[in-house]
TrEMBL record:
Pfam families: HDOD. PANTHER family: PTHR33525, RIBONUCLEASE Y (PTHR33525:SF3). Residues 20-215 form the HDOD domain. It comes from Pseudomonas indica. InterPro entries: GAF-like_dom_sf, HDOD, RNase_Y/CdgJ. PROSITE patterns: HDOD (PS51833). Signal peptide: none annotated. This is HDOD domain-containing protein. It comes from the Bacteria.
Length: 480
């Protein structure tokens, strides 16, 4: 039975004695060499040669295009040190040890995400340091890489308690720091400091803990770490904007150049992760492809779409008046879409009407990011006996349906393959639009852009808007 740990000292003892002694030894020795003015090529080679697997991995990385663009073959550690530099070989040894020491034992999701973020932070920090320091860039890289050492070690070696924390953090409304303290008896920050101290990494500790905020190396580490965290919210997030401004001031470049530097570093971090044999981390480093950034921006805007009760009430009131005062079709649909999109906070909305002699559904109106293509591409046969679908079902049964909840599971086969390609997977609302007894078409709405769950009050609003719009259209057709 695995022994439980509680409190800082018991975790440090367990990680040092049972879980990570080999990693700790390599990290300590490599760090010690950095502090020795006359550390020789042979001393560094000796540390790496103690472990055959580590030696071969360091040589593989040293031969990569990233570190050795000339592609002159490197077959020994001492040759690697001569060709690509003492500090680079030391950094490779440390990075490879960290990946091997943690990822091979427990490749759990949190560990991979955190390791990806650590590599991203390290590359950002080193490249920032390149602007303001003439040396010590490797130290900055290592300090940023080990910034979350305690948390990395916990997710890599925490066993049953890591499972417990995983479950605790998944609870809605949880405060992460409190959950961590409850399971570990200490914080991740304290655990990092404790490990760094017990591994005799004092300079790394002072860089990573920011004990001297005026030190440019400390600022480079801090900025690198913060950028790697903020990037997870999207490259257009307010947090990134603020950090890019800080970076521009710190390095003396324009905000535009600073942003390009940040994106280039993120791309480089992906290459570094591959080079170090941690290719599985690449997808966890935020993508800088313009198309991906555009998608992130759309998702971000969608997340910001919140229901607005005043807009919704106004739209309902306006539709109510149009039942008796007769608005034209354009005005009725404008009010309907405004009420559902801005009022009820539904992210994507589509009105598909019966067209071509009632034989097929064609899209008449849409709202929301990425819905424009539906206007030209989305066509459904009205009746399809060999493969019935939810649009015709709703119109035939004259009822609004909330798809994706248990009550409608029995209808899921009515969402056909082509429909899923157009609309994606997940919950949606769908309702018939009737002008009295005349079938007009079908109204569809979802929150697919942000992935948020649809809410009961949104469904109530969706039904109300559909009914009122139907009454407006009926009044219009009667010409009163």
């Amino acid at each position: 039975m695995e022994e439980r740990c509680h409190g800082l000292q018991s975790w440090i003892d367990r990680l040092n004695q049972a879980e990570l002694p080999a990693l700790a030894a390599v990290v300590q020795d490599l760090h010690r060499l950095a502090g020795e003015e006359k550390a020789s090529v042979q001393q560094l080679a000796d540390v790496l040669l103690r472990d055959a697997s580590l030696t071969s991995k360091v040589l593989r990385v040293a031969n990569s295009a990233y570190y050795n663009p000339s592609q002159e073959p490197i077959r020994t550690i001492s040759r690697a040190i001569v060709l690509i530099g003492f500090d680079n070989v030391r950094l490779i040894g440390l990075s490879v040890s960290l990946i091997d020491g943690l990822l091979t034992r427990a490749p759990r999701e949190q560990l991979q995400e955190l390791l990806a973020r650590s590599f991203h932070a390290a590359v950002q920090a080193r490249n920032i340091a390149g602007y303001v320091l003439s040396r010590h860039e490797e130290e900055v890289f290592i300090a940023a890489l080990l910034y979350n050492l305690g948390e990395l070690a916990f997710w890599g070696c925490g066993g049953v308690q890591a499972d417990e924390l995983d479950t605790a953090l998944a609870q809605p409304g949880v405060i992460a720091e409190e959950a961590v303290r409850s399971v570990l008896g200490t914080s991740f920050r304290q655990l990092t400091l404790g490990l760094v101290k017990s591994w005799n990494l004092s300079e790394i500790a002072s860089l990573a803990q920011g004990t001297s905020q005026n030190d440019p190396a400390v600022q480079a580490v801090t900025l690198g770490v913060r950028i790697s965290e903020a990037a997870l919210e999207g490259w257009d997030s307010p947090a990134i904007e603020k950090l890019v401004e800080q970076l521009a001031r710190f390095t003396g470049v324009t905000p535009e150049d600073a942003m390009q530097q940040v994106l280039a570093s993120a791309d480089e971090a992906v290459k570094v992760a591959v080079t170090f044999g941690a290719g599985k981390l690449c997808n966890l480093i935020p993508n800088t492809d313009p198309e991906q950034i555009r998608l992130q921006q759309e998702q971000r805007r969608a997340r910001l779409l919140q229901p607005n009760l005043l807009v919704m009430q106004q739209a309902l009131q306006d539709l109510g008046l149009m039942v008796s005062a007769r608005g034209d079709v354009g005005l009725i649909l404008d009010t309907l879409f405004k009420g559902l999109h801005q009022g009820a906070g539904l992210e994507r909305i589509m009105l598909a009407v019966l067209a071509d002699g009632q034989t097929r559904f064609r899209v008449k109106r849409v709202a929301g990011e990425g819905t424009q293509s539906w206007l030209s591409d989305f066509v459904l046969p009205a009746e399809q006996p060999e493969q019935p679908h939810i649009f015709s079902y709703v119109l035939r049964h004259k009822e609004a349906i909330w798809m994706g909840v248990p009550a409608s599971y029995n209808l899921s086969e009515l969402v056909t393959g082509p429909m899923r390609q157009w609309l994606g997977q997940g919950m949606f609302f769908i309702a018939p639009l009737m002008a009295g007894t005349r079938e007009i078409g079908v109204l569809y709405a979802d929150n697919r852009l942000s992935g948020r769950a649809l809410k009961h009050e949104q469904f109530v609003a969706f039904q109300r808007f559909t009914q009122l719009t139907g009454r407006c259209l009926e009044a219009l057709s009667k010409g009163r």
